[in-house]
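tool_call: predict_structure(chain=1)
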Amino acid sequence: MSHFSFLKRITPVITAMVIIGSLLTACVSTPENTIAADSVISLNGSGFNNQTAYNFVKEMKTGSTFGTEDKLISFPYEGYWGIEAEATENTVSIRAYSNLEYEPEIVNVTLSGKDGETVLTDSINYDEYYTLSLDSGAYRVNTVFAVNDLEIRNELNIFVDNKEAWLCETTWMDEKSFTKRRNEFLSLMSETEVTPGNSLDWKAVTHNGRNYDNEEWAALSETVITDKSKSEGYKVMQLHDWLCDNTAFDDYALDTFGTNREDYYSDSSGKYDLYDTRVGVCTDVAEAFMIMCRYNGIPCVICENDGHRWNAVYINDFWYETDLTNDMYRRAVSEDMSEIILNGSRGYTPIDLSSNILAVNPVCIGIEGK
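tool_result:
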């Protein structure tokens, strides 16, 4: 999966979730010292054909959250539980972690690469790091956790070249297409003068030129994020999960009217606002998420493409794209919005990187006139 940088490091999403970075391409076989945090590397011939690696770091926590079916739920920042890793020279040390009151059972752990698969189940635990010494190549640690009678899979990706190990993310997009998409994002961010520093004003967020229950969403986020000491990634996960679990996408409005209720009825009184109805479309959810993130000190903006909107959040010096609309499994299917059905399951759907970003919405980035 799955969600997801520029300036210090840039990377795409997640689920998750995607990270965006500045361009520096490389191939699988690279000269010494050519891998940087913002490298983009094709994994063809490494055992992971048709995949591309990006966002190379030395420390990473891969996170997971609760699902409604057995599936992969993994994103490249802290979750309720997951795997934490450190890369040093050609070794990677890993262990499980948990932010719950209990430690989910580790059902199975495997290390896969071009030479096959190695079972590590008996070696990975919550107490001590287990160190892997690895030859050059690409690897993936798959860990299956048992949570609420479900098996949730978590992924950690590793790349080793010239006796130097890195933790990274992967996408099914080819290297050339991924680089093009990433550069488009960077260009749009530059054109709209978006920076983490000017993407924090939660009071400035408006909906069709009016206040969008900003104070109410901010206060609500206080009840969602109960431990302010947690990482920004953990807080983003909590906000994402709350919105997915407590709001519904307005299938009825789009199927019947072809637009949202406010526009169809020409009613901007706030009667159809997401905070009151708990029902809305992509714009509503993206704006609510932006207010809640910014109120908690997490830079957040909106991206657009062909009438669809999603968010980019700045975590761990990266811009991650996350699309809550793709992850919403509650659907409103009646005129009075009272009938809610469940469609699929909550997850962290990866951003469709094959789809071009047409705009980074400059709404409320804190720049006069933008």
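agent: The chain is about 20% helix and 35% strand. Proceeding to next step.
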